[in-house]
Amino acid sequence: MKKLIQIQKKIIPEVLEVMERRYLILKQISLNEPIGRRALSSKLELSERIVRSEVEFLKNQDLINVHTSGMNISESGICLLDDLKEFIDEMMGISYLEESLREKLGIKKVIIVPGNADEDSLVIKDIGKTTCKYITKIIKNNSIIGVTGGNTMHEFADCLQESKKYENVLVVPARGGLGKEVEIQSNNIAAVVSKKLGGNYKLLHVPDNITKETLESLILEPEISKTLKHIENVNVLIFGIGRADDMARRRKMPKDEFDYILSKGAVGEAFGYYFNRNGEIVHETITIGIKLENFKSIQNTIGIVGGSRKAEAILAISKIKKDLILITDEGAANKILELI
Question: Domain Sugar-binding, which positions (predicted)?
């Protein structure tokens, strides 16, 4: 494919330019639907004349639908986006970036979406959609799926399409948590994902930062104990990767503790553990849920994260689990390679 693209660039470069432009228009419509021509023109930095012409072509090909409320992508358009992805990724250099990052991190697989979530919030939606496509290929009957909380995980759950092709699927929160932002808590995400997959779910109503005595007491509760057994048997884990400072602030960590973990070089957080850039634990919060030894042994582990600000956090997690599947964006990928 790479050789074919090089030949096409030399002989008929205008064909590739048109293909890339139409692909990007379809992609933006799928992420922003319903969207008007003017808004689409602004997002793609194309003239309204060009957008009008391309929209007319895509409409005539039954790839998009045009309504008074705006444009949305058709089923044929969705299929075409999927079919073109590998070719466009190769053409835009994303395939090369994926392989370079995979080799540098020494992990199992890297999937990269265009853009930088720090600059464009819709990139997170693209990461969510890409994660949905990937996990629907690896989920099997009788799977136990673990999920964490966070904005990226919430986007993934929201993008997931309803399906009834799986039997006896159980979804569990990878850790407990109660807070004001209920929609991004792992309990809520577990409930949404299980509904979309036609499965069942278990909840873990346990707050962070409890005392050790309270933790030991809660573990003895029959319902919590049963959920923890399921968590130990998770065979598909989808989790978000957070910066240490961001997660500490979100969990209202005391200032002296916050200063301590940063002084120890904490850059990333997952499952209540704070890691330095080498993947070493510098701090552990008292919480219920998945333990590090469980994390290391889970067969299918998918970390989803976007934005160049998360580069060091991704580096830390990749040191811990070498069979990790990472779904991220160009911003994070380029920053990681720069740091390495």
Answer: 92-338
